[in-house]
């Protein structure tokens, strides 16, 4: 594997960052998780847009232009002969002193890793997930806005551990008001009476690119989509539920906190949107090879 660090390519063994990088010392940095399908990078522009918005929010100057980052991703895919895979793009604050002040960091580092995707086992897609609400609430947007895709994922990791301790793969995270925010690495949707609902970004959700794509696909299929605040009751009484994310794509949820969702099987609208999403991943994206 060839890994891009600040304009140069390194083997897996030699791809290293300094112990003084504030990305490591403080989780001070941002990232994106991107997919390649059939020799094309899916939603590349949208991911790089979000990266630059995250950078703006944390006052991080990415030392490359939007176009340069896009080209570096395509080049890293080519160097690794990627047709289908997962790309992890990171920008760290860079090397500084031990104090937390980012002023000591001279230059942010850009890292691109293009490898294989680790998916949920196929049976979860067939049967649907059993998930639980966990005690750790989602970060307040007034503290660390969940819209920033920062390298500090401890909030999500704690929730993931709590889900695992409860025997589940994923956690529903609520916000400080008790409204549903999202899951640890995915956005959440419900279907009720043929319409789609997903928590608003202000509830503490990441502006998921898959979330946005699914909202567009639903609109194109004539389904109504809205973003009201949702409570656990709304989830329990939904007809269908599914999660969205670059890694997971769409994955059905059939049980939440011991309550079956609908008839306890992945729903029809979920399945239709899964098919539409897969069709889109086959038909679009930035070509890696000309
Ligand atoms: N929420 C969180 C907390 C995430 O980390 C992610 C990305 N894995 C998502 C939602 C889904 O976002 P996207 O569809 O852009 O991958």
SSE topology sketch:
Layout: E1 2-5, E2 8-11, H1 22-26, E3 29-37, E4 40-41, H2 44-57, H3 66-79, E5 85-92, E6 109-115, H4 122-127, E7 129-133, H5 154-165, E8 171-174, E9 180-183, E10 187-192, E11 195-197, H6 209-220, E12 225-226, H7 232-236, E13 240-245, E14 249-256, E15 259-260, H8 268-283, E16 286-287
Parallel strand pairs: 7-8, 7-14, 11-12
Antiparallel strand pairs: 1-2, 1-6, 3-4, 3-5, 4-16, 5-6, 8-9, 10-11, 10-13, 13-14, 14-15
4'-deoxy-4'-aminopyridoxal-5'-phosphate binds next to α6 and β13.
Task: Please provide a written account of the structure.
It is a single chain. The chain has 290 residues and is an alpha+beta fold. It has two domains: 2-115, 2-Layer Sandwich (D-amino Acid Aminotransferase, Chain A, domain 1); 122-282, D-amino Acid Aminotransferase, subunit A, domain 2 (D-amino Acid Aminotransferase, Chain A, domain 2), CATH 3.20.10.10. 29% of the residues lie in helices and 26% in strands. It is built from eight helices and 16 strands. It has helices at residues 22-26, 44-57, 66-79, 122-127, 154-165, 209-220, 232-236, 268-283, and strands at 2-5, 8-11, 29-37, 40-41, 85-92, 109-115, 129-133, 171-174, 180-183, 187-192, 195-197, 225-226, 240-245, 249-256, 259-260, 286-287. The chain binds 4'-deoxy-4'-aminopyridoxal-5'-phosphate. 4'-deoxy-4'-aminopyridoxal-5'-phosphate binds next to helix 6 and strand 13.
Number of domains: 2
- Give the overall shape: globular
CATH architecture descriptor text of the largest domain? Alpha-Beta Barrel
N-to-C SSE series?
EEHEEHHEEHEHEEEEHEHEEEHE
For the largest beta-sheet, the strand count, sense and barrel status come to: 9 strands, mixed
Helix count, DSSP H or I runs of 4 or more residues: 8
Low-confidence stretches: none
Radius of gyration: 19 Å
Computed structural class = alpha+beta
CATH topology of the largest domain: D-amino Acid Aminotransferase, Chain A, domain 2
Give the beta-strand count.
Answer: 16
DSSP strand (E) fraction? 25-35%
Helix content: 25-40%
Distance between the termini: 22 Å
What value does the average pLDDT take? 97
Given this structure, which CATH class of the largest domain is correct? Alpha Beta
User: Which small molecules are bound?
Assistant: 4'-deoxy-4'-aminopyridoxal-5'-phosphate
